[in-house]
Amino acid sequence: MRASSVIVLSVLVLGSPVCSRAQSPLRHWTDAVDARFARTQPVLVYTLRVDTADLTGYGVELHIRNAADTVRLGMIAHPEYDDRYSRYVENIEATGPRGATVARVDSALWLVVAPGGESTVRYRLRLPAEESSNRSAWKPFLSPTGGLVGDLHSFMYVVGQTLAPAHVILDLPPGWTIATGLTPTADPHTFFAPSAFVLADSPLLVGRLRSWAFQEQGVPHRVAYWPAPDATPFDTASLVNGLAKLTHEAVTLFGRAPYRDFTFLLQDHVEGALEHLNSVALGASSAGLASEPANFFAEAAHEYFHSWNLMRLHPAESGDVDYRTPRGSRVLWWSEGVTMYYADLMLRRAGLDAFEPTRRAHLESLIARYMMSPGSQRFSPESVSVVAYGSKPGILGDYFPSTHLQGELIGTLLDFEIRNLTGSRRSLADVLRLLSDRFSGPRGFTTLDVEHAVAEVSGSPAEARRFFERYVRQPHPLEFERYLAFAGLRVSVKWDAAVDDSGRVAADHRAYSWRSAGVAPTLLFGNPQSVWGRAGLHTGDRILSINDSLVETSAQFTQAKNRLAIGDSVRISFTRGATTRTARFLMTGYRVPTVHIEDAAGATARERQVRAAWD
């Protein structure tokens, strides 16, 4: 997601033919090395120590040599998940041959003064208490049998010296092994990072791991799994085989892998995932793998596809590592949404179970969700992208549009349009490959770059300009009938009352909450026409009670809300600013769309060709 400098890699000329072979991103044979030599660079060696006698945190030691007498050390802010682990740095001290001091000068910044430019900075990273029973896959943890450590949660970097290489030494309990995207060395406990970015983007899964390997086009891939002590047995061969199939499909689509090797870092009793340059941290519940592996593979397909579309082909707003929060990107609709589009396709091509039986059924589900999300029609994909990462809930008021949903549907319609304009000779995949060839370097890409690539691949700059002005830069509702007609398909929509699992009309429970420390649960909903919005409530209101029952946690809000039945009188006490208020309403049901996509009568040969190529 980052870029380290602004370098224009190529000039895109509209109407020029698609390059059959990309220019090498290397400019000289000396570029093809892990570490450049410069006497002015500091020499950095990190040591991370885990002691099973104290699993509440771990120690980090950074030895700095060949540096200035005064350096700044920063804890890196992630563009998507800024967990602010600088809050958990404890017992920091500095020593040196000629003395050294360290002092905190900002929330995530420290100043080290060491005459002669050599010092050793030691600190402890205290692991915060988990706020829920389900830990996120990217957060560090420790247990008697293993953990996840390293990356930006653990290692400070030398500000202004982000291209300085570093070695990482792990001091671990006996019997623990290591899985990481960092470069191995002759010592199995020492790894190499050619830059601060690579160091920060390479978590380390450690412990009593299970491990498997496969190759794709000669590129090594490793699957490392940390099982919980109470792990449920599951079919490990199917796990590895499924990941190998996904890898094959993605590499085939792009033509080559964008890394020297890849590691799947899988963790039991964990949820969520986070992509990295040549690894991915994934929650992989052993119970889930035993009962419903489709959930895991859907997540894995999405995060793995990010290896190309987000990590290598990254937004132009992304930059080098920084201790300050990165600015938002306007192209996450592409990075996230188009990744969703191809993750679903990769699952199907790999022969793995998807949530819907066919691509049509999947598209029907997406359109229905879009129609239920007024925010996705009210706000442009570019504006939603800017606030998608790192923003507080409710930043768009009583709406929460999804950049993933917007982008996946935009990718779908673009695919139909490109296939129509080119007689099915080209598709959205050609746009992905073209962008990857041209913008996988430091510069990154913008919405305009995507528009130009679509124009070049489709041969129609005017249609590309119209599409992007209408649906990407502006908040114009997507016109599904127009674009599905290119494939000889028609869309019908029927609205009916929502029903629950038993077939009874469902109450309008479409309200949610989140809770910050020391404050009442805060209301969040995505449709002002819900019963909650019509009652005068707004996102950001702090809920005190429902029908005189105190609400002090998000779980209590969910329980109280879900007990409400159609026809119930509801009285909610809440605060807005410094004022306490009351909202009263009768609980009602709500309507949901059923979307059906079918072959249109009288489809032309060209339309049937597009349909066959897409289906």
How would you describe this structure to a colleague?
By secondary structure, the protein is of the alpha+beta class. The chain has 17 helices and 30 strands. The strands form eight sheets. It has a seven-stranded mixed sheet with strand order 4-7-2-1-12-15-14. Strand 24 and strand 25 (522-524) form a beta hairpin. Helix 6 (332-349) crosses helix 10 and helix 12 runs antiparallel to helix 13 (461-472). The longest helix has 19 residues, at 236-254. The protein is globular. It starts with 42 loop residues before the first strand and ends with a helix. Residues 1-22 have low confidence and may be disordered.
Please give a handful of descriptors for the protein shown.
alpha+beta; 7-stranded mixed beta sheet; 5-stranded mixed beta sheet; 17 helices; 28% helix; globular
Main beta-sheet annotation: 7 strands, mixed
Count the beta strands: 30
Which outline best applies? globular
Mean pLDDT reading: 93
Helix content: 25-40%
Give the strand order, joined by hyphens, for the main sheet: 4-7-2-1-12-15-14
Low-pLDDT parts are 1-22
N/C terminus separation: 31 Å
Percent range for β-strand residues: 25-35%
Radius of gyration computed on alpha carbons: 26 Å
Which structural class fits the helix and strand makeup? alpha+beta
Number of helices: 17
